Amino acid sequence: MTDLIQDLRAPVAEPGTGHVRTGTDVSRVDGRAKVTGDARYAAEHFAPDMLYGVVVSSTVAKGRIVTIDADEAMALEGVVEVMSHLNRPKVRSFDIAYKDMTAPAGSPFRPFYDDKVIYSGQPVALVLAETFEAARRGAALVRIHYHEEAHDTRLTANLDKARKPRPLKAGYEPPPPEKGNAEKAWQAAPVKTESEFHHGVEHHNPLELFASTVIRGEDGHLTIYDKTQSSQNSRWYVSHVFGLSKNKVTVRNPYVGGAFGSGLRPQYQLTLAVMASLKMERSVRVVLTRQQMFSFGHRPETVQYVKLAAEQDGTITSIMHDAIAETSQIEDYVEVVVNWSGLLYTSDNIKLGYKIVSVDQYTPIDMRAPGAAHGMHALEVAMDELAYKLKMDPLALRLKNYAERSPIEDKPYSSKELRACYQQGADKFGWSKRPLEPRSMREGSELVGWGMATGVWDAMQMFARASAVMHADGRLVVSSAATDIGTGTYTVMATIAAEAMGLPLERVTFQLGDSTLPAAPIEGGSSHVATVGSAVAGVCDKLRKTLLRYAQSAADSPFRDKRLKDVEFVDGALRLKKDPKTWIALSAIVAATGRDRMEEKYLMLPAMLKQRKFRRMTHSAVFVEVRVDEELGVVRVTRVVSAIAAGRIMNTKTATSQIVGGVVWGISQGLHEESHTDHRFGRFMNHNLSEYHVAVNADIHDIDVIFVEEDDRIVSRLGAKGVGEIGLVGVSAAVANAIFHATGKRIRSTPITPDKVLMGGP
After folding, report:
1. Is 673 in the active site?
2. What is the mean pLDDT of the chain?
């Protein structure tokens, strides 16, 4: 062993002092694979005997299937089967709830369950063929006859039917009990506002279409490439619905081309692809069309009522916020829409309410910043209205009512640097130069307006497992069944591991996107870094201790009596802090054990008892400049400053990208995005990217992102929170407030389209 220690002291190259660190700009480690096409997505995996499936969608919103005439389709060359509820394989049970998964809980839609049609666009048949082209042509030839029933897809016409949700989904936090007497305080206040808001349906529209490729092995094992935000969710679903051992199903999602919440639950193409593979005993791929991507969930249409009251000096004396949103006939979808109004501004009287209305549409699903995107819009526009009634600067009103503790529950915040967000954002934007009066700035033919809003989102942490393997050649492989939907998970996790182990980034591989890897939750809720990142840090900590222990094993080892605090891991070596010339290569430590690898595993569990004592949140302050051509009703967002407090930032490059993406979506939410329903047919009509408007390059101008200094060890051992959602929250409200400042027109519904600007509302 003495000789081995001598060898360990002589690595090929002497360690230096630099290696990759968190909190810096690190380019995506998966970037090359994506831009060269080496990254393969769910619909880009092949098998020699693969069948292609194309879904036939219902043309009615409610009723029953009377007959399915597939003769023409079956006569087409290459078509091998037309599958429906009439001839699908047996399933163990469709009657499952997502109670054992990390997906949103509930009783989800059951494709091909029976002859009932419960929404327009429902999958009613699947054409299977030897080629995609034959399957697509065959789908057009299937004739389905329905017994149509009366449907109702209107929210605003059914507000009198609003009710409290039942049952509540896991993770949903219902509005808290009333604090004080909000109505009485509102009635007595000298200054008050009362506003109604309407938000239309939005659809996710990630670039990658939803697809599932099921590759059937000779032993019947199913390897499934699925577009999902959790490979383990999809694996769990397939195993339980079809009664398959988990050892018979592997789900992979190494690359996901966007999701934004649409992939939290397994979508129906996965069910149909597995059904087809089991029935035909062949590999099957099912890809949905862009139009069909509008048929499995959306951000719900929502109506909100906000009443605020204040003293003449701006002290808020009452906050009342109620929301009514749509859900389906098969389950109650709920969001945290109004709760934010009890978490942000100090008041002795707060009353919050939330109800839903069942309509004949598919169940809504979580969409980036679910609940907060709408709820914070209403609150922040109402705050702007109150500021103008008070003749007070909107930022000054927010600072006047700044909450040092969570108002409705009287808990301390785990950290809150919102005041710094206000200050740094305002300074960067030049807010102090803003005149209070609307219509006071003009440039050429355009009115210029400045608006601002606050953003807030939960700082969540779930549980996760991770493994770390140090190889004798100096490579480190860290694994967890995490997901990267374009947020930079590969890069951030590799960076955390590289920093912990003192390795160059190119010597570290992070494995994700495979259901056989150590357990990880969904990538959702801005929780992946705080959760999986903490697991990665934890397993690397265990590995560091193990490496030190082996380095101490020789009697004359210079590390024999040293503790972890006495050493450092730098450039692939373990060395003494006080004597940098004494060091050992990590690869040599592994080799000295006689093995080719050294592995550790770690389970990260949130410190719930400690965390529950605090309100854990991320915060932002958004400042927006708009230019409005009143003759055309055209609004341009020409400048945005977004100041973010989200704990320690692991990678400033990818985090900035996340915030910029959120700001772009916030502009799109405020000005462009809405799915229009023809209620005569109960169908979304603009179900394509030519008519469903999203922000494009010409709509986006200067966006500045500021990360204020914050470190939150309550939320995570890394001090990190999350940045996925917070970049979106508050942006649309800031846009609306800027439009008011420019025009003097208060528009309370989104999107704020040119016709509303011309008419001055609603």
Report:
1. no
2. 94
